[in-house]
Amino acid sequence: MKRNEMTHLRAGAGFLMAFLLWTALIRCVDVQAAGPLGTKVGFAAFNLWFQRLTGVHRTIYTITDWLGFVPIAVCLGFGMVGAVQLIRRRHLRRVDPDILLLGLYYFLVILAYLVFEMIPINYRPVLIGGALEASYPSSTTLLVLSVMPTLKLQIDRRAAKPRLRTVTCVFVIAFSAFMVIGRAFSGVHWATDIIGAIFLSMGLLWLYRYAVDAADRRREVADGIQ
Question: Which of 60, 108, 164, 170 is the most buried (most CB within 10 A)?
Fold first, then answer.
């Protein structure tokens, strides 16, 4: 158990460090006024090459936008699980630790989104509704890759039927892949925005797994003492 904890901690810290480094590089490497209304973007040659490769596909953008409600529904679903446990058990400390940690984790994901909305690193390569919008990291990619894997993790922990775990795993992988690829090829984000979102979401996810492992170990120790 402890070895898994350290592996997850190192992975989380590594991805977060990669995200911070990537963000810093975007601000200083090949920065050009390549966006709409003269907005600047780092790694301009790479981003413009990818933008020309994919083009802009508003239909894919709209589909992935609407499908962004799926991870939001997952968050609300686990919020209801926590609320039911709290009502039935009548004390916050009696709510399953992994559910409490999940709530904190979702809060951190939302906080990260809000921070980068207030401090734009990049603006989108296209105008949305005639206006500039912050684009880094891709919020849809961040939401999907941060939330959907937690659905698999929770089902693995709570479902007794192997078939349900398998179906959930396939769904999470297929949905996440479709959303990330769709978002990248919709043309409404720079390629570096997608990459940054992957780094950040993986960093937060692995740290959540570390926190759950640590909570499980503490519970096992407490049960052993009792």
Answer: 60
